[in-house]
Amino acid sequence: MNEAVAARPVGAGPFSIFERMVAWRYLRSRRKETVISVIASISFLGIMLGVATLIVVMAVMNGFRAELLTRILGVNGHLIVQPLDSPLEDYAQVASRINGVAGVKYAIPLIDGQVLAQGNVGGGTGALVRGIRGEDLSKIAI
Predict the structure, then answer these.
(1) Could you tell me how many helices (H) and strands (E) the chain has, helices first?
(2) Which of 11, 42, 50, 115 has the fewest Cβ atoms surrounding its Cβ within 10 A?
(3) pLDDT digits over 20-39, tens only?
(4) Does some domain include residue 1?
């Protein structure tokens, strides 16, 4: 018997006797205090729903953030190499040199430019266009 008492964990559990006593006092109804019990129950349900909503929203936003970062980094590289004065014509050689650096997953040449786009409604607007080779498209995470 003494071993069973000694093996019991020391400290308070998730709800102590005092907490249960206070909760039972305010959540049970007596004839005169029915309104207090109803208000306490509604408050308890409201807090429960609010916390559940907060947990769900935080979980969804965390997944959305991870997905957004994956998609943005899948299209935008960590490093962009551009020439200063002339067009970069030996892009395949530059990409192969960068691919040879330790720690680089892959280097993909891409074309980046501005265009004027017009829809069925009329009126043009500026747009950015990026183009990559078909064989490099499978390397990025979209």
Answers:
(1) 5, 2
(2) 11
(3) 888 787 767 666 766 767 78
(4) no
